[in-house]
Amino acid sequence: RGSFMNLTEELVQRCALKRRAAIGPMSNAAYEELLLAVQSDLKSYASETDELPMYHLAQAVKRYQDSQLNDDSYTDEEFVQARITRLQTFLYALKNIREKYGENTDLLRMNALVHASDPESLLQALLAIQNQAEKEAKRTSNLEDSKTSETIPHDTWADVFARPRLRLQAAIGRAYADTARFRLAATTCEQLLEESPSDAVGARFTLALTYARLEDEVALNRLDDRFNHHSNAWIELARALLLFKLSRISSARRALKSYQMNTEGGAFALLHPTFVDIYIPDRPEVATGSFNEALLAIHEAEPVIVDVPDFVEWAGNIPEFAAASDAYAAANGFDLDE
């Protein structure tokens, strides 16, 4: 289970950059050696560079992810129980890290995600972390590589110390959408794309759905062009929703067909929404066109779909769309009569 967020990899970079700042100028070759040294003795370097909160957080996340590996073999009851235990264990680990080593933005964000009982309280909890995130990013802003040339457009993601703040903002963008504050969601995500054009945090996905909800076709087209029409389940779904909302039904149908053709099990994911768990450590990395991508896109599109109640029914009444859903269910052992 890869994640855009590889905490251990980031931790190695954080420790090495801090160590280099303490030692003074070094050649690229020497820095490469330092990275290897840090990798081989991560805990000592983390201790020495004040990165123990991140070190222990990475360990807790790894235990959390490892405990998900058996999920497919559980019955529903077993899964529910395993999930409760897993989340309790994780929360206890976070509490322990905060008390013993201190807290950081990523820890507080994950803590908020697990604790929140509803989208509104999650949003408020995430907003409350913003000051800490700003402070943390500023404290380390002088450590990143200053060698980046002026001609290359700056991407904040390149600074490993800024990533927790970008992840927090992306989570806030999703929380704005989940609480139907779509203009704030759009502003937050647009700002993220400006700061980090590579968009490792996937703000463009939230943005596509948000533009569909705001019926802003010009903005959706612009977003699509900007990423060179790299298809993904979010933008395909957003296009179908937008056109349906604008009552351009034959175009909406073509867009839905495109979503169905480009996304494995996409029809099934829309007609039979499946449980998607909290994003720990962050939105999971999924292959483009995969069923898992469809699951995430449908999950995140819920606040938009709720607003267009006839959309799912309309899609389910298109014979080839319904047939594609049934075929996927049959091929993958989903029992629709449960």
Describe the SSE topology.
Blueprint: H1 7-23, H2 28-40, H3 42-48, H4 52-66, H5 76-100, H6 105-115, H7 119-127, H8 130-139, H9 163-178, H10 182-195, H11 203-213, H12 217-226, H13 233-245, H14 249-262, H15 266-271, H16 291-305, H17 310-316, H18 319-331
Helix pairs in contact: 1-2, 1-3, 2-3, 4-5, 5-6, 7-9, 8-9, 9-10, 9-11, 10-11, 11-12, 11-13, 11-16, 13-14, 13-16
Low-pLDDT stretches are: none
Q: Output mean pLDDT.
A: 93
Number of helices: 18
Q: SSE order, as H and E?
A: HHHHHHHHHHHHHHHHHH
The global form is: globular
CA radius of gyration: 22 Å
User: Biggest β-sheet: count, sense, barrel?
Assistant: none
Tell me the distance between the termini. 28 Å
Structure description:
- The model has no long low-confidence stretch (mean pLDDT 93).
- The protein is mostly helical.
- The longest helix is centred in the N-terminal third of the chain and has 25 residues, at 76-100.
- Helix content is 67%, strand content 0%.
- The protein has helices at residues 7-23, 28-40, 42-48, 52-66, 76-100, 105-115, 119-127, 130-139, 163-178, 182-195, 203-213, 217-226, 233-245, 249-262, 266-271, 291-305, 310-316, 319-331.
Descriptive labels:
18 helices, 0% strand, 338 residues, mainly alpha
Overview in brief:
With 338 residues, the chain is mostly helical. The protein contains 18 helices and no strands.
